[in-house]
Amino acid sequence: MLTENRLKMYLAEFIGTLVLVFMGCGSAVFLGVSTGGGHLAVALAFGLSIVAMAYLIGNISGCHINPAVSLAMYLRKKLELFDFCGYVVAQILGAIAGASLIKWMLVFKTVDLTGALGANGIANAGGVRGSLLIEILLTFIFVIVILGVTSDSNKSNIAGIVIGLTLTFVHIIGIPLTGTSVNPARSIGPAIFAGGAALKDLWVFVLGPLVGSTLAYLVFSLIKPQEVVAKRKK
Hints:
It is a single chain. By secondary structure, the chain is mainly α. Helices cover about 75% and strands about 0% of the residues. It contains ten helices and no strands. The longest helix is centred in the N-terminal third of the chain and has 28 residues, at about 5-30. The model has no long low-confidence stretch (mean pLDDT about 95).
């Protein structure tokens, strides 16, 4: 049932994903990523967006702003199926809105330094197989950290910072390889406007993060501390 509270959660996810795509992909579009400094700036833009949004909407929706994260939370039974679907729709729409704002801003700055609106690509990661492997691995690292830091209420005050910094460091290695997705919504938004190879290879950046997220859930289920298990049994 679509309640007022659910609408607020979905709106929060929409806004959070919009900001993530606009700031992260926008920094790549307008700053470029051809140098090490450019890579770091874009990585920080993605990471700091997560930090900011975590403290803005974390208490409203949990600040997933990523279908891969929502999938992990659904698998952990922290999210109902109805809300999982609602979150994913809101995230994709938010990503499209963020990408459309970047597209609009190109009217004022006519050069897109990525050439594809910050969309992901497979060229530098050994093609489809290499890109898929990179996205699975980076998403696994990102999501398992999220599961760990959000499983302990004592860490709630620092969760946003830890998650943001983790997203930053996976971008540092991932940007020169695939542009770093680890987030299907982040990939869908720019690809819709970029078209061409970005749209053709989009499935890699949807499937890879979802597989990585599922593996993160499975591994975390095996290694999670006993006290976390005990809390869930109460």
